[in-house]
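User: quick one, fold this
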Amino acid sequence: MRIELYQQDTLALNDSRLALFCHKLQRGTLVALPEYTLNPFFTILRTQKMSDTLAHSSAQLKLLENLASKHHIHFIAPIIIKARGTLYKQLVYISPESKKHIYYTQQRLIEYEYWDEAAYFGNPQPKSIKTPSIFMLGECKIAMLFGFEIHFDEIWCKLKAQGVDIVIMPCANTFDSANRWRELCKMRALLNGCAILRVNRVGSCKVDSEQWDFYGDSLIAMPDGTILDHLGDTQERLSITLTRAQITHIAKEWGFRKVFD
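Assistant:
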């Protein structure tokens, strides 16, 4: 199975970069986008009217649907939608083979004073974690998860119990957290016997009097706790072909996850 990590900043509605990129992909490729690529970054998003945010999301979803159908490719992307009269932060899986999308609603959100998504979005944060959305593609069992949720053991216990092979994890990581994120991805991949594909955004955003820089470093962590490949800090893409046999071979060798055949 071919997977492309598309490391980008926010894509404007008239931006042709994604369409040009998809034109070159082989059929059946899965493309993963970082957080706040289809929508503006959180600090900008919260200044917008809800109607403008939803119109923007609708147009970007339509773009992905058209690209998926035209090039026969798959997408995983973060998107802001309306649910129960408020905004939800979700991940969407779009397949060229189905008009029905698979969504995952983020269950644990950032709630720092300077970056409080929990107070802004209406996402339920249940005491008892639910199993994230999982789907099959290329014989692999794939889960999609928001980057912040890497910190919560109970989520990963759910994924391990389901025998997930690959976790696609869109992120919006900034400040001086690159080394910490690398260690987190390596640790979760090793203990869960899965591959973690973390796709982080790049670019910058003005917040009050400071500039926040998003450093990229999108990466592939394998079930033996190693980084197979990674990107730099610019607009780039990372291509990887993964098979279930390759992943389960490593997982069985280390023995931290029971592999379901």
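User: anything notable?
Assistant: The longest strand covers residues 74-83.
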